[in-house]
Amino acid sequence: MKLFASVALATIVSATLAAAQNHTIDISLDTGPTHLRNVLVHDIAKKIEDASDGRLKFNFFEGGSQYNDRDVTTALAQGAIDMALPGHWNLARIVPDYNVLGLPMFYGLPREEQYKAADGETGAALAKETEEKLGVVVLGNWVDLGFGAMFFTETAVKVPEDIKGLKMRSPGGAVAVARFEKFGATGVSIPFPDVPQALQKGTIDGLMSTFESVRSAKLWDSGLKHSYSDYHAFYQYVPLVSAKTWNDLPVELQEIMRTTWNEGVVEAREAAAEAQAKAAEEAASHGMTNISATEADLDELRADLMADQGRLAEELRVDPAIVATAQKDLAQ
Predict the structure, then answer these.
(1) Is 21-95+112-145+237-278 CATH 3.30.300.30?
(2) How much is the pTM?
(3) Which CATH class is domain 147-234+280-330?
(4) Closest alpha carbon to 293 in 229, 232, 233
């Protein structure tokens, strides 16, 4: 009887010690410390550290010092890194259903409408598929980067057709490439840290990105002079945690991490919208011109793209069920 009591007590003590242990989570981000993603994630990580009374700590590897976003999913699956936030366009390389977020039905919708899918049944379905394919855990809601725009070194684009013949750096994902091809441009895949040199050497004529990303890298110093805003895509980052790392955490810390993360995302999304607006103003202060697509241009382009949505979804290997789920979410 004493033996069983001793074993039971040892089990309780062991579980108590495990729960009391500090856990350090290494995060890989391929953008620099001043980039909006990094700033927002640092802020949420601090909230999690405080909520856990210091039992959870975060260690950041930034500027692609460990992995770029195209390779980090493999590292997560192998347990080589604990956490990362790749853009949904990068995840589409492995889980093609993420391409649904770039289909014409999302073109030009305000962010509140975009959340209907990301935070709704579409996001839940994508999370399940991601966890099953990669062996990772989707921590919670996605962090905003913001609406995409196109930026150029020499060409002042007034309508989408003006990018014909240009070499454009793509953030990744088949959707962006397909959009460039539609207008006769060439999509070039280059890691973000290599963009300044590519612009200076003329390897690319411009890029698809956001004002905040341009600001963080001061790409006006690398030759960017013009921008064209058509709200063609809404970029978000998906929080992924290695399954090994997640399973090593006590249930109590898992709950703290999930809850605090989602609470932090609410504030982060508002901060992201404000940061993008300020970044556009800063770009203008450095002499960058911006032309915004007119309502007529947006309506015409959306109608043109919608006519190809079925074909585009098939080419991008998007499951018709996910397309239907997204349509349902947007109709809410």
Answers:
(1) no
(2) 0.83
(3) alpha beta
(4) 229
